[in-house]
Amino acid sequence: MSGSGLIAALTTVSKREQAEALAHHLVEQGLAACVQLQAIESVYRWQGAVQQEPEWRLLIKSTQARWAELQAAVLAQHPYALPALVAWPLPEGNAPFQDWVRAETGS
């Protein structure tokens, strides 16, 4: 990842309480500047059958420098047997926002 050094990461959990707990942990530990929570509906194949379930999506704003720690924290607390956690670089962004994310994550 390159550019601004900022990343957006995404994962999902099944319950609002799980999403809130994970979001608070990431922000309190300085691993994320912000985590947005959104109720969604997911359709996926699991163990040979198509499933449809409500989930909570977490959009995590952080930095490349904190990625390894963020990944470890999410995977350690994630309730799923096979959690999806993906991240992508944010090559552009307004300077005050970038500065804020870096300040909040100590990056």
TrEMBL record:
Coiled-coil annotated spans: none
InterPro entries xrefs: Ion_tolerance_CutA, N-reg_PII-like_a/b, N-reg_PII/ATP_PRibTrfase_C
GO biological process, one term: response to metal ion
Matches recorded under Pfam families: CutA1 (PF03091)
GO MF annotation terms: copper ion binding
Family: Belongs to the CutA family.
Protein name: Divalent-cation tolerance protein CutA
